[in-house]
Amino acid sequence: MRLRLIYIGLVAMLLTACKEVTDDTDVTVPEVSKCFINLSIAVTNSNGTITRGTPSGGENGDGREAGFDRENAVTGITLMLYQTSDVAGINTTANPVIDFVAYYPVSRTTKDNDARIEATYQTGNQLVPQNAIDFTKTYRAIVVANADLTGSVAAGTSHLDVLRNMTLSGIYSGDETRPVASCGNFVMSSEQDQTLTFSGHGSQDAAGDYYYDLTTQPLFIERMAARIDFWAVNGSYNADKSGYVYDVTGSTDKFVVTAIMPFNLTNKHSTYGKEYLLKRLTDDISSSTCQWLVDETTDNYVLDPQTKDKGSSEFPLLTNSLQNVKDLTETTFASSSYCKKVADMHAAVAVSGTTSGYGTLSDMDKSGEDVIVAYPMENTLLPESPLYYHATGIAVEGYYYKGGLTDSNPDRYVYYGYLRHQGEDTSYDITTTNSTTELSHQETAMNIGIVRNNIYRVWIGSIDNKRNLTLRIVVKRWDKFTHASIYM
Prior knowledge:
The protein is built from six helices and 32 strands. The chain is mainly beta. The strands form seven sheets. Strands 1, 3, 4, 5, 6, 7, 8, 10, 11, 14 and 32 form an eleven-stranded antiparallel sheet that branches. Strands 2, 15, 24, 28, 30 and 31 form a six-stranded mixed sheet that branches. It is elongated and about 80 Å long. It starts with a helix and ends with a strand.
């Protein structure tokens, strides 16, 4: 009788546990109760509104915009699960252990006809090691795409603080300043701290294998990079002048933009080119406390690893700082690897279209070309931080033709403008002059700065006969990625 009870108990264990199947052909192990995970990763469609000429910034900015096909590419994901009873989740004061860590390669399963809108990926069935997940429990999930963190985060050993404090470099493996279709992928991380509940979502097939359908619990991730665009609205391309031609207000003069160059980019700096894995915010920059994955507002800061250090002028200059750009001659400006010549931009639009990341965007009423200038990392700074040293911006090279394009000796100008993340109650225009004089720095958190997963689109609003150039800007949010369905 006792042996019978033991036998019944062993059978029950087989029916309730996830068990791996041995490859030893001399031992027969029934394929009972294997548990598989199959994650479906989808890019959602854009639901943005028409762009406004004011940089709202924040979580949704001036609407939303879907990414290009290469910006949406996912090669694999790291899934990390932890447990906490604290409703604060990732912002708990505790430091729970990471219970489950796995990296899964993915392959594309569907693609929308419009390559800029949507793509879906799946891991395929992946066996969950025995006892790796307790399916009776509720977990919090952190997801990182296009980065294998299994060598840095270990299940049962690493704690949540590892993720909360982790920094990464090389968040975009392509050429940030000259994007082409063959560029590498963007590292993306969780936009939210989300809960996964397995109870009530499981089913078993005839072979005894278990599947957990978590379709109603989608996970969201976002790119860690940002994007800077130049939009040639109000201008028309002139092949003879190799640039975009703009009318000068109140005169017959013309201004021709010939090149665009970003400056103060952190992604090429050997020491300071790092970014927090998870979005980190604080409403008190003097405090040591912060929160992760909470909504951004006009009253809090998104922190990069050096935000607080930028209050000092001793902070090292960035590799492509304004200091390196301000005195460039026409020859050196055009030869810089960061410089984008308008002639090259136009050629890329004409030849490659949207496949290279250039071209008009469907959700804006655009009459001009749009070009991607750079993919910078987060760069946020304090109100007292010197803009000259730290603020991300663009330099616009152009020639001023008096009386029209027949002027044989146009004056060359280079204008410098700092990119805003959030606006003020006053004008949202960026007015620049032909000097590197520091522009006024508003005393509002995040007024000047670059934040992940946002597009900073600038264009020339006007130029007058006193050579004053006005740039305008919108801040649009790259659309979310959705793990549309998760099966376990």
